[in-house]
Amino acid sequence: MKNTIICFCSLLTVMTTGSCANKQGNTASSGTSANITGKTWKLTEINGKPITLTNPKANPYFMLNTADMRYTGHGGCNGVGGTFEIKPESMRIKFNQGMSTMIACDDLATERAFTQALLTADNYSVNGDTLTLNKARMAPLAKFVLQP
Asked: What are phi and psi of 73, to 5 degrees?
């Protein structure tokens, strides 16, 4: 009986330790994933390909503001913005159709791909200073780097 109790306590200790280690691992791996808001995210890739811009100073970016649940940014040619919904605990996000100015420029194709990626995304992941917007379990739609 004593051996059974010792085995049971040992097993319980191992299970508890493993559970705590798993929770710590999830927190460390997601890092800033629970808080991607209030930060500026600059576009680096669309559909797995690095972006190439005629005007590198007009790099597309966006920022999420939880005070009014709005996103704002720049597509490279035009300002973009709208509302969004986010569930940080499940890393789900939804950008709603918003507004945009209508200025033509040489990087309009990149801007269209950028805004399409925002509107298509339904989840995200974070690895260090890199944010990836995804649709279901398909290949990433867009990658962004955190701006200082």
From this structure: 180, -165
* pTM of the entire predicted model: 0.76
CA of 108: how far to CAs of 11, 47, 58, 140, in Å?
Answer: 60, 16, 11, 21
A 10 A CB-CB count for 106 gives 12
Q: Give CA angle at 82 (31, 68), nearest 5°.
A: 65
Please give the DSSP secondary-structure letter assigned to residue 56.
Answer: G
Helix, strand, coil percent values for the chain (each to nearest 5):
30, 35, 35
Q: Which of 108, 116, 117 is nearest to 144 (CA)?
A: 117
* Closest alpha carbon to 124 in 134, 115, 116, 114: 134
Cβ atoms of 125 and 91 closer than 8 Å: yes
Model pLDDT for residues 117-137, shown as the tens digit of each residue: 999 999 999 999 999 999 999
Hey, is 28 helix, strand or coil? helix
